Amino acid sequence: MTESCYFSDPVKTDLKMDWSITCILWYFIPFYLLVHFVCFVFADADFTLLSSCLIGHKPETKLKGLVVWVTGASSGIGEELAYQLAKCGSRLILSARREEELKRVKRHCLENSNLKDEDILVLPLDLLERTSHEEKTNTVIQYFGHIDVLINNGGRSQRSLFLETSVEVYEALMELNFLGTVSMTKQVLPHMTQRGRGSIVTVSSAVGLIGAPLSTGYSASKHALQGFFNSLRAELTDFPKILISTVCPGPVQSLIVHNAFTEDLNKPMAIVGSQGYKMPTSRCVRLMLVGMANGVKEMWIAQQPFLLIYYLWQYAPTFAWVITDLIGRKRVQNFKSGVDADSAYFTKPKTS
User: Fold this and answer.
1) What is the pLDDT of residues 251-262, one digit of tens each?
2) Global confidence as pTM
3) Which residues are catalytic?
4) Distance between CA atoms of 254 and 267, rounded to whole angstroms?
């Protein structure tokens, strides 16, 4: 018998293996992409944050017993943060200007958690009164002994056209949203560097990444926060246990629109439309806590189609400009015709 009867051709064997691998990849890659596409369609946060939801640490474990200072805690995202942190077992400092509202939030926390009265400190605070921030920080440290987490949540939004808006509104937005947050961070961060650990979590916005009409000043203040904390994070590489995290929510159900600046400092919002299409505050806060528990440095939180805009700006900015211009034009048209700006994507402009 010849030698070929006992040994197969190695070239043919290699070709068969290559063909098998090619076939597997031919079917696997489209399936892989399809799965990710379906997940993205139903996603309400970036993939890093959603993966933390599935396989990461649970807030109930990582945040239990931590001392957490929440600014802007009297309503909206800050109020919901207080409720969910209380259920996680975190000890809380609740700060905002309205003391009675803070007391109401504290009562709700105590009624719906295992915390005791001494586990929650109500500490009225005005972000504009920066000279008081050192004293407030010392009060917290004297009460609890340390601060594990500072959540910079206080601030105001804006609904007005640039050409109609006074410079004083822009000054107020920067003073409150940017300098007020920087001042709080300035007081708390040295305490964390001394301990070698801690977290500073700042609620920015989608418009901190993407410009939006009717929010020029608000967007500028949030862009400033993004630049500040991205730079600060790089300065703190010698402190690997200090987390600097920014949260960029899209439209969320809250009272921030009701309190938004208009073209004049003392002019209230005339129209506030339905917020039913926005993300529930409870879902936004849950994602925030997951990000905090897993050390996520930047969180994108938004329902579709808003989440898609984040990714377009990140990976296809030229195309994103086209989409932004289309959305912006409709937003301005609705605003001028008397329709609530936040409903601009879901309602038709009024016609005369």
Assistant:
1) 998 878 888 999
2) 0.88
3) 218
4) 20
